[in-house]
Structures are given as C-alpha cells and as structure tokens.
Design goal:
Radius of gyration: 18 Å
Order of helices and strands: EHEHHEEHEHEHEHHEHEEHEHHH
Number of strands: 11
Shape: globular
Strand content: 5-15%
CATH class: Alpha Beta
CATH superfamily: Indigoidine synthase domain
Length: 309
C-alpha cells in the first residue's frame, strides 16, 4: 500500500519527528466552495492546525499517488480544476490507476488517513442518509466508512438537507459513537442544534482522546464522530435555513439532480438564496473544527499506550 502514498516534505518531517498530524479532505476545496474562497479557506485551516501545534495533511489524488499533504500549487490546482473527480471508496482505485485528478470525500479521506497512520481527520460535515432514502437507497458511503475505519472525524454534524434522524439511527446500528462538543445536542452544520441528541457530551480534548483510545484498545474498530457545533456568532437561524433547504431540495428534484451532484447543487443554491451568508458560516465552522481537531490530535499523541488497530 505504501507505494501509492506520497508524503509532502512537511508531513514526512512530522512523521519522522513523531509529531501529531491532522488529515483534511479535498472535496470541500474542489466541490464545496467557489474559487478563490476555497483555496483561501484551505490555507487558513492548515495554518490554524499548525498554530495549535499539529501538522496539517490535506489529502488528494494527483498523478497516480495519494498525496498526504499538498503544496500551495497543488491546492490551487484542486481549487481551479472543474474536472477534479469526487472520490469515495468506490472510486479510489480507479482514480489512482488512471492517474486522474481526484478530490477525496470524507470516506476516501478516512481510508487514506488510515493508510498513512493518521488518527484524526477534520472536515466540515459528514454525509448521511438522504431524504427519501427508503425508496432511493441514497445513503452516503461516509457512514459505512465510519463503521469500518478507525479514524476520529471532527465535523459540524450533518447538513439539514439530509435526514438527520435516520443518519443517527444508521450510525447507532453500526456502532459508531457520536460525541457532542460543548452541548448535548447534535449540530446540523449551518445551525447549532438539529433537534437530536449526540450519544455522549465530551467537551475537552483529553476526555475525547481517552474515550477514543479506550474504544480502539478494546478492539472496537471503526470511527468516532466528534460533532462540534458552528460558533454561535456564525450560526444561521434554524427556521431560515430549514425554509431555504426545502426550497433548494424542491428545485433539485424538479431539475432531476441525483447522486453525487445533489450536495454540490444544494450548497451552491443555498449560498445563492442566503446571499453568500451560508458560505461564511461554512468557512467559520471548518476553522472551528480545525482547532478542536488539532487539540484532539495532540491529546491522542500524548496519551500513553495508544495502539492503532
């Protein structure tokens, strides 16, 4: 497997020095935000992780290699290439073998992080069970990956475009614990409270790390969702985002948007309907997650006896 991995000089140095590394996805750059905000956000998030004492590793597929850590030029390439493929578990081998440009989703980033020995991954929000999944069977591969791959995922919950209740039921069925940070409620990406509860509230990095370490030491493979709500000053009113989401979902159905195209369409439409405010919220929550994720990586690194599965 190692022949497919290419570590950036910064990440290679961190590995040699035994410093904690935090994985970052690249779909948020290629498909989640417009240019140049996407690249600016990526650089700022990486710097926040450095400032907290960890080393960032943005992951993407370039030239037949799984790149663990990207240069500024590679970030620009992802942020400006409309043909970058959105890569999940199903697509990973194809994109590597065909030497395509690929941006990793939550699922693919978890796989690549695990291959690289990285235990903490920061993203905006995870995928979930789509509304109407009882007939469409549209369930994000992110959830299955969380059930099988031992990486802690720091996120702001899931977007209200999804069926949040069914998403949490799916995670519970597959034994994936959901930790709430700073509140008992499970966040809904743009808003702090979805109306559903997390499984456990753990506010501090040391408490979170001890739980995660214990889970894996018990042989309980699989990920952990660390649900960190968007800062209150940047959150959107729940009633407003719910109304706009319903409108965007209706438009997606009318236009026949399906599969992987649904989430990028909805995020773009929500940005338009909120006059850009949703993009500002998105950036704020990713930055907040980066700080929490870096602290968690440091805490896991400092705990004795962590044995990866």
């Amino acid at each position: 497997m190692q022949q497919f991995l290419l570590f950036s000089p910064e990440v290679a140095a961190a590995r040699a020095a035994g410093k904690p590394v935090v994985a970052l996805e690249s779909t948020i750059i290629s498909h989640g935000m417009p240019y140049p905000q996407n690249v600016e956000m990526a650089r700022e998030v990486e710097q926040l992780i450095r400032d907290a004492g960890a080393v960032p590793a943005t992951i993407a597929i370039i030239g037949g290699k799984i790149c663990i850590g990207l240069s500024n030029e590679q970030l620009e390439l992802l942020g400006t290439s409309p043909d970058a493929m959105k890569v999940s578990r199903r697509d990973l081998a194809f994109v590597v073998a065909e030497r395509r440009l690929g941006a990793t989703t939550v699922a693919a980033t978890m796989i690549c992080a695990a291959l690289a020995g990285i235990k903490v991954f920061v993203t905006g929000g995870i995928g979930g069970v789509h509304r109407g999944a009882e007939t469409s069977f549209d369930i994000s591969a992110d959830l299955q990956e969380l059930a099988r791959t031992s990486v802690a995922v720091v996120c702001a919950g899931v977007k209200s475009i999804l069926d949040i209740g069914l998403t949490l039921e799916y995670l519970e069925t597959h034994g994936v614990p959901v930790i709430g940070v700073g509140q008992p409620g499970f966040p809904a990406f743009f808003t702090r409270d979805s109306g559903f509860k997390a499984d456990f509230q753990m506010d501090g990095a040391l408490e979170q790390a001890a739980f995660i370490q214990t889970k894996w030491a018990l042989g309980l493979a699989g990920g952990v969702v660390v649900a960190n709500p968007v800062p209150e000053a940047s959150a959107m009113p729940k009633e407003e985002i719910d109304r706009i989401t319903e409108q965007a979902l209706g438009e997606a159905a009318q236009r026949g948007v399906t599969g992987k195209a649904v989430t990028p369409f909805l995020l773009s439409r929500i940005k338009e309907l909120t006059a850009g405010r949703s993009l500002a919220t998105n950036i704020a929550l990713v930055k907040h997650n980066a700080v929490v994720g870096a602290k968690l990586a440091l805490a896991l690194h400092d705990l004795p006896g962590l044995q990866p599965i």
